[in-house]
Design a protein that fits this description.
Mean pLDDT: 88
Low-confidence stretches: none
Strand content: 15-25%
Helix content: 40-55%
Strand order of the largest sheet: 2-3-1-5-4
Oligomer: single chain
Radius of gyration: 18 Å
């Protein structure tokens, strides 16, 4: 189904010059603490579906690619709009816990995303998808580097406070 949706969107873009973008996401669980060995985190599927439903437009097509990867075909959306979509989805996912550990602490869904606007060089679905996942990997490297810098140089307790 994913390939069919992409093939149709590519054909429409070639014919009419429409602006379309593709966003891809990889979702993981954060802060899960198993009560006993072998426990698995509760599924985030319903929570992630609700977030996608809030963020995506009715004209967008949201697809689950596998257990933890999703794609969104964004119609009439340029590169900036697609990047903003990725940011909004990541932010909404992290806003609240989707489940609780036995100790009451929250379990969160975390996402990394990437996007690419369609251009004529993406004449087939594979090249379009590869470009979106390449952007996801670039974003992952940037986030990993930023987290490493933060761990190496955490802010002091006074940073970020407004002087009175």
């Amino acid at each position: 189904m994913f390939r069919d949706v992409l093939d149709r969107e590519i054909a429409r873009s070639i014919r009419y010059g429409d602006r379309a973008s593709l966003a891809v996401f990889e979702i993981t669980t954060a802060n899960f603490r198993p009560g006993k060995p072998g426990d698995k985190a509760p599924s985030y599927g319903e929570y992630v579906a609700q977030v996608f439903a809030r963020i995506a437009r009715r004209s967008d097509v949201v697809l689950r690619l596998d257990t933890n990867r999703f794609a969104v075909v964004l119609s009439e959306c340029d590169a900036d709009g697609a990047a903003l979509f990725v940011y909004r989805l990541r932010t909404q996912l992290s806003m609240s816990a989707y489940a609780r550990n036995e100790d009451g602490s929250g379990i969160y869904a975390r996402g990394i995303g990437g996007s690419v606007q369609w251009t004529p060089e993406f004449a087939d679905a594979r090249s379009y998808v590869d470009a979106a996942f390449a952007d996801l990997e670039r974003n992952r490297r940037e986030m990993d580097a930023e987290q490493a810098r933060f761990r190496a140089h955490p802010p002091s307790p006074r940073e970020g406070k407004i002087a009175s």
